[in-house]
Design brief:
This protein is mainly alpha-helical and 207 residues long. The protein has a single domain (3-206), classed as Four Helix Bundle (Hemerythrin (Met), subunit A), CATH 1.20.120. Helices cover 79% and strands 0% of the residues. The radius of gyration is 18 Å and the shape is flat.
Length: 207
């Protein structure tokens, strides 16, 4: 919901250092380091190490924001780089709730975590296939001016909200079950609203 403004803020923050980093480290390497930090967050959460798990998650998010800024700063943007970035994100998005669940298992946490992972899966499919259709119809990033590889239509839960939810259940794993349920319910709203938006938009373009 707030991704556009936060991407602009992130770019302003990283702008002074991105060129210097880009001369030494390729953006793909930064994406892979972000993946490793995210997996470390999941493993630390599974061991019950709350503070270190959150620190690793914070590093993951910082590196995930840095790779795109570095790529733009040194002119090395590529479709593969965008693909690598989103694949790494979704590996981490799947691993971290599992880590929290394993670190703090309970009879309430299991169904909540399964519900969250299921809604994450369907939400990802609803966004990615819609993005492919919009790009094919020339209604994607070239039309919207987004600084991402493919278009990301607005949603209730997007990147910013995901960071907030994941930060909360990493910092307070005892609260994970209700946070899982809340995020999952909002993702269901994402899916329904995106389906309604796509039905209206695609029909309008076809008319």
């Amino acid at each position: 919901m707030f991704d556009h403004w936060l991407r602009m803020l992130k770019d302003r923050l990283f702008e002074p250092i991105a060129p210097a980093i880009g001369r030494r480290i390729h953006p793909h390497v930064i994406s892979l380091l972000a993946l490793l930090a995210g997996l470390a967050a999941a493993l630390l959460a599974a061991r019950g190490c709350t503070g270190p798990a959150f620190a690793a998650w914070a590093i993951n998010r910082a590196l995930d924001g840095l790779d795109g800024s570095v790529a733009r700063a040194v002119g090395s943007q590529s479709d593969f780089g965008g693909y690598l970035d989103i694949m790494a994100d979704f590996v981490v998005y799947a691993a971290v709730p599992v880590g929290v669940l394993l670190g703090h298992p309970s009879h309430m946490a299991w169904p909540a975590a399964l519900f969250l992972l299921a809604t994450l899966y369907v939400n990802a499919a609803s966004w990615m296939y819609l993005a492919a259709i919009l790009e094919r119809r020339n209604l994607g990033v070239a039309a919207t001016g987004e600084r991402t590889t493919v278009t990301m239509p607005p949603a209730i839960v997007a990147g910013t909200e995901t960071v907030v939810f994941y930060s909360l259940f990493l910092l307070v794993p005892a609260w994970a079950p209700p946070i899982f349920w809340l995020m999952g319910i909002l993702l269901v709203c994402n899916i329904v609203l995106r389906l309604a938006w796509a039905r209206r938009r695609i029909r309008e373009e076809a008319a």
